Amino acid sequence: MVSPFDVLDVDEDADEAAIERAYRDRVKEAHPDQGGTVEEFQLVRRAYRELDDRDRNGEADDGTDPADIDLSDDEGEADAVQPVRVEFLDYAAIDDYGWSLDDDDLFRKASHADLDESAHGRLLVHPDESLLEAAENRGFAWPFSCRGGACANCAVYLVEGELSQPTDHIMPEELAERGFRLSCNGYPLSDDLKIVFNVKQLAELDDLILPPGPFTRR
Ligand code: FES
């Protein structure tokens, strides 16, 4: 029997803040780029979701006590986690239209601008895909270079939701706090995401960009 509390290593009476902290720590350890596996990573996500979905009485939707949920029962854990919906926007469109990255109406404006479907649209990220892999698997050509956390060519800007970041990444703390993430090894941590891709042309990311090479796209 492995309950969501066991997976996150928190007490059954842990409050929301403690669960959130435990989740952040566990998800880093379980990240595939940190020696974890996709299955372990998704198990941590599932445990957090079970605890996050509790109502005011601490019960799951169906009235179950989360302490009685056995996550070791699930066959094919990765399949048990639903794909994450991502709405994306190309920074080039923001630049062309003179919009701002911080505009609260950014995605509404994008949906009225009749942009090409490669510049603005939605895609699903499956449990075993990084954000960049998901984009590529759906036929999009987003920028990248090293694919290993050592540059910002694949950087995206988070407008809504959360994307994981391995601990040995190049992104300075200040930019990470502002919402910049790497798509090549970023796995969604929330059910929905809104991101701006192709932000590598921003001046603040200049020093982190690798010059064009055989493995660089765009
Ligand atoms: S492509 Fe270099 S960190 Fe993602």
From TrEMBL:
<dbReference type="GO" id="GO:0051537">
    <property type="term" value="F:2 iron, 2 sulfur cluster binding"/>
</dbReference>
<feature type="region of interest" description="Disordered">
    <location>
        <begin position="50"/>
        <end position="78"/>
    </location>
</feature>
<dbReference type="InterPro" id="IPR036869">
    <property type="entry name" value="J_dom_sf"/>
</dbReference>
<keyword id="KW-0408">Iron</keyword>
<dbReference type="Pfam" id="PF00226">
    <property type="entry name" value="DnaJ"/>
</dbReference>
<feature type="compositionally biased region" description="Acidic residues">
    <location>
        <begin position="60"/>
        <end position="78"/>
    </location>
</feature>
<feature type="compositionally biased region" description="Basic and acidic residues">
    <location>
        <begin position="50"/>
        <end position="59"/>
    </location>
</feature>
<comment type="similarity">
    <text>Belongs to the 2Fe2S plant-type ferredoxin family.</text>
</comment>
<keyword id="KW-0411">Iron-sulfur</keyword>
<feature type="domain" description="J">
    <location>
        <begin position="3"/>
        <end position="56"/>
    </location>
</feature>
<dbReference type="InterPro" id="IPR036010">
    <property type="entry name" value="2Fe-2S_ferredoxin-like_sf"/>
</dbReference>
<dbReference type="InterPro" id="IPR001041">
    <property type="entry name" value="2Fe-2S_ferredoxin-type"/>
</dbReference>
<dbReference type="InterPro" id="IPR053441">
    <property type="entry name" value="2Fe2S_Ferredoxin"/>
</dbReference>
<dbReference type="InterPro" id="IPR006058">
    <property type="entry name" value="2Fe2S_fd_BS"/>
</dbReference>
<protein>
    <submittedName>
        <fullName>Ferredoxin</fullName>
    </submittedName>
</protein>
<dbReference type="GO" id="GO:0046872">
    <property type="term" value="F:metal ion binding"/>
</dbReference>
<keyword id="KW-0001">2Fe-2S</keyword>
<dbReference type="InterPro" id="IPR001623">
    <property type="entry name" value="DnaJ_domain"/>
</dbReference>
<keyword id="KW-0479">Metal-binding</keyword>
<keyword id="KW-0249">Electron transport</keyword>
<feature type="domain" description="2Fe-2S ferredoxin-type">
    <location>
        <begin position="113"/>
        <end position="201"/>
    </location>
</feature>
<keyword id="KW-0813">Transport</keyword>
<dbReference type="Pfam" id="PF00111">
    <property type="entry name" value="Fer2"/>
</dbReference>
<dbReference type="InterPro" id="IPR012675">
    <property type="entry name" value="Beta-grasp_dom_sf"/>
</dbReference>
